Amino acid sequence: MKYVAAIDQGTTSTRCIIFDGTGRAVASDQKEHQQIYPRPGWVEHDPAEIWERTQSVVRAALQNADLAPADLAAAGITNQRETTVVWNRTTGRAYHNAIVWQDLRTDPICQALAHHGGQDRFRAQTGLPLATYFSGPKLRWLLENVPDLPAAAAHGEALFGTIDSYLIWWLTGGPQGGVHVTDVTNAGRTMLMNLHTLDWDAELLDAMRVPRAMLPAIRSSSEVYGTAQGVLAGVPVAGALGDQHAALMGQVCFDVGEAKNTYGTGCFMLLNTGPAPVHSQNGLLTTLGYKLGDAPAVYALEGSIAIAGALVQWLRDNLGLFTSSAEVEALARMVDDNGGVYIVPAFSGLFAPYWRSDARGVIVGLTRYVNKSHIARAALEATAWQTREVLDAMERDSGVKLTSLKVDGGMVVNDLLMQFQSDALGVPVIRPRVIETTALGAAYAAGLAVGYWSSPSDLRANWSVDTEWQPQLAATAREHRYAQWQKAVARTFDWVEP
User: Fold this and answer.
1) How far apart are alpha carbons 117 and 394 in whole angstroms?
2) CA torsion 127→130→136→140, rounded to 10°?
3) Is residue 84 a contact partner of residue 139, using CB atoms and an 8 Å limit?
4) Which of 84, 146, 165, 262 has its CA 20 to 30 A from that of 372?
5) What was the pLDDT predicted at 311?
C-alpha cells in the first residue's frame, strides 16, 4: 500500500503529514521555528532553520508510521506565501534571513511605486494592489540592501524563491542539481507574474528592478518537478501550492462559487471563479486557485486577513493572559459577551478589504467593568468580524450569495469561535472531518500528478462533515455589533504618518 506525503511549511511551524488513499492522515510531525523581529514591523525567518525543521519532521512522520521513502507514491509542498528567500546556487546559503509576508519594511518602496499610477498600478497584470504583503517589493529591498547581491543575481548565482522553491531545490539535490521551480499559485503572489500569461512579466521585472536570471521556472501545481534525494530519496516531488490554494483543493472546492476559509496565523477566504480571472472592485485579490498539469488554470477571488491566530498568540506571549493558545476558549466562555470591547489587530496594517499600511491595532470600548475574559472573547470575535467584511466584499464582486462556509485550519477546533463565525455571517459554518486541508491539498496535487488519484472528482468522496454550526444571533443584534466593529476599524486609520 502506497501513501502520499505533504510538507506544510507555515509561518510559525513546519509539518509533515502522510495520507492514505482515502485522505486520512496516518502519521504526522510538527516543529516550530523562530520568529525574528529585528525592528518594529520587521519579521524574518532563518531559511536554514526551516530546511532543518523540514528534514526533521519528514523523518519523524515516516518513523511514526513505520514507513520508508519507498512506501510513498509522491510528496507535495505547501507553504507560507510571499515570504521571500534569496540563496546562493553553489553553497545553498541564504544571503539574508527570509523576509516574511507580514513584514512592513517595503512600505517606502510601495509608496514610491504607487506615486505613478496609484496603489492599483499593476492590478490589471497581477490582480494585486501595491502592498508590503507581496514578494516583489521584498526582493527589491534585498537587492538594494544586501552587498554584492545585485551582481550575483544578474549572473544567476543568486536564486530567488518563495519557500516552496527553496524547499523543492533542497529536496531535489540542492547544490548538486536541485530543481529551481515554483508553481503558478506562488508565482502569482510575487507581483512579478502576469496573471494572464502565467509567466514573468518584463514590465513588472523592470519596475521592481529584478533580474530574470534569479527567478525560478513557473510550473503547474501538479506535475513531477524532480526526484527527491536525502530524507525522501527516490520519491517524486510532484505538487506545490501556496497554503491557501492548497486548502481550496483540500476542501474540494472545484466548482465555480465554492468557497473556503482557512484560520491560521492569518485568515484567508478563497472563492473559485473558474477559468477566467474576476477583477475585484471591493478590495479583494484576484489570484490563481490552482493549475493541474496541462489543464487550464483555475482562478479565485481572495480576501486576505493578516492577523487571526496571531492575535491569540499575542495575548499568550506578549500579554501573558494564558500559557497555551488552547486556553483562550475556556477564558472567553467565562463571560456572556465582549463587555463592549472590540480588538482590531492591525499589527501589520490592514489587509482586505482596506489595504491600509498606515493602520495599527486598537482595543476600544474599555471600561473598569472589562476583564481578561472580555479581552479573550473580543480577540476571537475579531477573526469572525474580519471574515464578515471579506465575505461582504466577495459577494459584491462575484454576485454569488454564499449559503454556507467551509472552514479549516488550526483555529477551527475552537467551537466558540466557529459559533461566533456563524453568528457574524448569518450562514452555516461547516468543519470537515479532516481539518488539515492545507496539507491534504498538497497531497492531492502530488498524488494526481503520479496517478495515485485518477481525477479531482474522485477526491470528493474523501470529504465529509464533522460539525456544522447554525447562526443563533438575531439579525438586528448581528448588524448592531457589526456596525460597532466597523466603527472600531475606523479608529485604526492614519496612525502611521508619512
Assistant:
1) 25
2) 160
3) yes
4) 262
5) 95
Q: Residue 341 has what pLDDT?
A: 97
- CA separation for the pair 376, 384 (Å, rounded): 13
Q: For residue range 282-297, list pLDDT tens digits in order.
A: 989 999 999 999 999 9
Q: What's the rounded Cα separation, in Å, for the pair 182 and 139?
A: 16
Q: Report whether 388 contacts 163 (CB < 8 A).
A: no
Angle at alpha carbon of residue 101, lines to 96 and 102, rounded to 5°: 105
Torsion over CA: 226, 231, 234, 236 (sign): negative
* pLDDT, mean of residues 86-115: 95
Q: What is the mean pLDDT of the chain?
A: 94
Is there a cis peptide before residue 353, judged by omega within 30 degrees of 0? yes
Q: In angstroms, rounded to a whole number, what is the distance separating the alpha carbons of residues 36 and 435?
A: 28
Using one digit for the tens of pLDDT, what is the confidence trace for 23-68? 999 999 999 999 999 998 899 999 999 999 999 999 999 999 999 9
Rounded to 5°, the CA angle 14-18-24 comes to: 120
25-32 and 259-263 beta bridge pairing: unpaired
Centroid of chain to Cα 350: 16
Residues with Cβ < 8 Å from 206, sequence gap 6 or more? none
pTM of the model: 0.86
d(CA 352, CA 287): 13
| Residues in a beta bridge with 94 | 87
Report how far Cα 316 is from the mean position of its chain's Cα atoms: 22
Sequential DSSP letters for 255-311: STT-EEEEESSSEEEEEEEESS----SSSPEEEEEE-BTTSPPEEEEEEEES-SHHH
Separation CA 417–CA 426 (nearest Å): 14
